[in-house]
Amino acid sequence: MKVVFAIDSMKGSLSSMECGKAAAQGLLRAIPDAEYEVRPLADGGEGTVQAVTTGCGGTFREANVMNPLGKRIRATYGIIENPNKTAIIEISAAAGLTLIPDVDRDPFKTTTYGVGELILDAIEQGCRHFIIGLGGSATNDAGIGMLQALGAKFYDSSRILTGDNGYLTGGDLEFISRMSPDSFNPILSECTFRIACDVDNPLFGPRGASRIFGPQKGLFDSEIDAADKWMRNFAKLSKESLHRDVDPDVPGCGAAGGLGFAFKYFLGGELEPGNKIVIDETNLKNYISDADIVVTGEGMLDAQTAMGKAPIGIAHIAKVFNKPVIALVGSVAASFDGDALPDVDAYFPIMRRPISLEQAMDPATARVNIAATAEQIFRLLQIQTKI
Fold it and tell me: By C-alpha distance, which of 353, 259, 372, 341 is closest to 25?
């Protein structure tokens, strides 16, 4: 028997690889001579850098960059050595909402400048291929901070804009009257960007970045119309400065406060579902095609699972190769309809007795629970194959 484990992280408890290794321990208790592969799984959000970098034998690097409020911090990203030398970056490492206190949340004062600094650091390390995970940002600057760090120039009616503290923020969108990407770092033209984006919001409008995501980042209701107007103007100026059509309504342009738009039109990035990028980059299809059974899973099984989350991406691929799919999950939402989980043959919650959430998320407890559940599953499968 050959098993492929590709389990998403159980956030706050175990990483993707840790989940897979725990499940593999259970497999070997039941079937000591079983073959297996533990592969990383992520959806482009939190945990993507760790999962992909570890699973692909890469290394981690720290860079000194600005956080959303301009404070210097150490941000971690991954580098995978391959013909293209790939950098794996989560924008939240430099521009994340969790990097600043709740009381300081203000999209008019936050910047994506640090994201640009991460990209420049990776370029200095020889990276020319980038996987960028959007999500969890504290910003609503349409990416101007990042673009400024990469060399773009922004102007008001009379002078170049540098920002009050040397970096541009969401509030500076109000004053931009023209811009020039001509001074971009020239090596950017050699780089490719795959952008993990799991929201379909446009740059502005009723479902735009400011109106949908602004309030959770600290934008007041009275400020939303102004921020949306600035985004609309930025799209117009982008068309003029790039000398080509841009479409701010492309799904995902509003992701991460407009970073999706900036990556797509200024850096030539492709906006794609995060789980698809991870599956492609880690060659998961090849591993799945050679397996007898595929085991996937995640921390919480709920209605969102069936809406394109990473475990469902694995299950879809497994069914292309006609492989049985088992899911191990931390817990199941009370409202979840088990019949709504496509391509998964059976799912198993790992909880073995009533315990508190804190106890359940303890890494040691989670490892024991995953291994024990996997062991019982494979003992049953071993019996089934003998009948």
Answer: 372
In angstroms, the CA 385 to CA 370 distance is 23
First-residue to last-residue Cα distance in the chain: 16
State residue 283's pLDDT score: 87
Residue type at position 71? K
Enumerate residues 6+ apart whose C-beta is below 8 A from 260: 134, 195, 197, 203, 252, 253, 254, 271
pLDDT tens string 8-22: 998 889 989 999 999
DSSP state of 139: -
What is d(CA 100, CA 122) in angstroms, rounded to the nearest whole number? 24
Would you say the C-alpha torsion 264, 267, 273, 276 has a positive or negative sign? positive
C-alpha distances (whole Å) from 253 to each of 80, 94, 237, 311 are: 27, 19, 15, 25
H/E/C letters for each residue in 110-126? CCCHHHHHHHHHHHHCC
| Nearest CA among 34, 76, 33, 40 for reference residue 57 | 40
Taking the model in full, what pTM does it have? 0.86
Q: What is the CA radius of gyration of the chain?
A: 22
Q: Reply yes or no on whether the pLDDT at 255 is more than 90.
A: yes
The pLDDT assigned to 307 comes to 67
User: Rounded CA gap, 343 and 308, in Å?
Assistant: 12
Residues making up the chain, counted from first to last: 387
Please say if the pLDDT value at position 287 is more than 70: yes
